[in-house]
Amino acid sequence: MNMLIVTFNLSGITDAQYRAACEGEAAAFANIPGCVGKVWIADESTNTYGGVYTFVDKAAVEAYRRSELFRGMQADTTLVNLSSKDCEVLDGPTQITTRRSAPASVMA
């Protein structure tokens, strides 16, 4: 597996506007070929936003980077200083430290 970490700053839109837009765009990200999931991140205090994606392999990451969806993010003038970093997942230790299900306190 591979992770893709994408970060950017907002320009010309507010945190609230960005969050509302994310709700509408989530479905498109749910259908990325080879993507197991995306965690959306936001830190309004530092104007840092983005996502952490899990992909089945590096080829899926590269295919996403060539996709219209990713190129659209790069061209979006409200998302500035966009950076992306691909990292290989270390399967052995990750299996040890990854919960199979969330504890009840998290689900509440």
Topology:
Elements: E1 2-10, H1 15-30, E2 35-43, E3 48-55, H2 58-65, H3 68-75, E4 79-88, H4 91-97, H5 104-107
Antiparallel strand pairs: 1-3, 1-4, 2-3
Give the tags.
single chain; 108 residues; alpha+beta; Alpha-Beta Plaits; 4-stranded antiparallel sheet; 5 helices; 40% helix
Please, could you describe this protein's structure?
- It is a single chain.
- It is built from five helices and four strands, in the order βαββααβαα.
- It has helices at residues 15-30, 58-65, 68-75, 91-97, 104-107; strands at residues 2-10, 35-43, 48-55, 79-88.
- It starts with a strand and ends with a helix.
- Strands 2-3-1-4 form a four-stranded antiparallel β-sheet.
- A hairpin with a 4-residue loop joins strand 2 and strand 3.
- It is of the alpha+beta class.
- It has one domain: Alpha-Beta Plaits.
Number of strands: 4
Shape verdict: globular
Poorly predicted parts: none
The helix tally amounts to 5
Short description:
The chain is α+β, with helices and mostly antiparallel strands. It contains five helices and four strands.
